[in-house]
Amino acid sequence: MGVEVLIEEFRKLLELIKLEYDNSEKKVILLKDVQKLVLPGQVFENLRRGMTLMISKWAAAKLYEAGIVEYGDKVIDLKNLIQLEWKEKNNPGELQELPRYFYLMIREDVDKLDQNIKNIIVDIISLRLNKILGFASKRIDASLVENLTREEALLYETIRSLIDEWLKSVSPIGGAR
Q1: How confident is the model over 8-50, as pLDDT tens digits?
Q2: What is the CATH number of domain 78-170?
Q3: Where are the domains of the chain?
Q4: In the chain, what is the greatest distance between 2 CA atoms, to the nearest angstrom?
Q5: pTM, whole model, 2 decimals?
């Protein structure tokens, strides 16, 4: 299998994760009272300002645009990102917990971010990538690696499989440890 084929398959799997994200639920907080809210498969009545709902991502976007809700899961908060960066740097043996679709959430807001926040995010990505590569090179079972996002889990499994195949071909004891 050529590298191009592997990369194309990897892209397809990432697209499936994006599709899963696009069809996921999002936490929203009502900004005003709403008598009745009808969504496919859901009917909400007598909603009060400040209430939290879990609704489909696309519906959340429409209600946000209409000024009815604000997003309840704010990923891009400078204080939280600085804390996350610090924890990633100071805990080299573990990944910090992130929202399931952290990278996709970041990508959605990338145009609204200032350069300082972008730099912190790039640092977090780099720190996490180094940890993932370390775990994969040690051939740690994926079930033992905690706090991987969906994209990271896919990357981890792919890299670990490649390492296993490589070791089978170059190691004097094959793929054994």
Answers
A1: 999 999 999 999 998 899 999 999 999 998 888 888 999 999 9
A2: 1.20.58.2050
A3: 3-71, 78-170
A4: 71
A5: 0.81
First to last CA, the chain: 25
Q: Are 56 and 41 in contact (CB under 8 A)?
A: no
Q: What is the second-level CATH architecture of the domain 3-71? A: 3-Layer(aba) Sandwich (3.40)
Q: What is the DSSP-derived secondary structure letter of residue 23?
A: T
Beta strands in the chain (DSSP E): 25-30, 34-39, 42-47, 52-56, 69-71
Interval 115-146: pLDDT, tens: 999 999 999 999 999 999 999 999 888 788 89
Q: How many helices (H) and strands (E) does the chain have?
A: 6, 5
Spatial separation of the C-alpha atoms in residues 25 and 49, rounded to whole Å: 20
Residue 49 in 3-state DSSP?
Answer: coil
Encoded tokens for 169: 């071909």
Q: Is the pLDDT of residue 173 over 80?
A: no
